[in-house]
Design brief:
This protein is of the alpha+beta class and 179 residues long. It is built from seven helices and four strands; from the N terminus they run βααααβββααα. A hairpin with a 2-residue loop joins strand 2 and strand 3. The protein has a single domain, classed as Winged helix-like DNA-binding domain superfamily/Winged helix DNA-binding domain (Arc Repressor Mutant, subunit A). The longest helix has 21 residues. The chain has a two-stranded parallel ribbon with strand order 1-4. A two-stranded antiparallel sheet has the order 2-3. Helix 2 packs across helix 3 and helix 3 packs across helix 4.
Amino acid sequence: MATEDLPETFRVTTDEQLRAVSNLTRHRIMAVLRFEPATITQIAERVGLAKGSSSYHVRLLERAGLVKVVRTRKVRGVTERYYAMAARSIELPDPGEGGPDVLMRHAVADLEASPADGERHVRMAHLRLTEEQFAELGARLQALADEYRELSDPALPDASLVFALFHPSARVQAEGDTK
């Protein structure tokens, strides 16, 4: 199964699914499977895990419905399974006020683990926008991410794009005021 045959979105709705995606190791395994299927051995090599640990985490993801076996083949009498994502993207539930944003925590961990001497583009901008401008910027960022996801080639090195457009809480704004 090629990635273009996958459903567009998998919505995380159960506690089991949320626990599965909340783990950083499983997040990294899903990143390996984002563009092409891989075996437990291939996943272990790419993530830097022992095969047993890789197998354990993949089984949890499979049980939660986030990854699935897309093909098998016999190799020296052993059935080798190729796993792929169950959908092109994962939609997480809103964590609610004060709740941890799993996606942002994983993104920060991935950024911190990336090579310090590698090229990175990290920016933060504080903006004052109308609701219409806010909605337009969110749509433009999503369209740009979708455009480049379509251009992604599994033969090229991985790159991660993370963005968050949000209104900070009134308390955070008040604390940051310098008036």
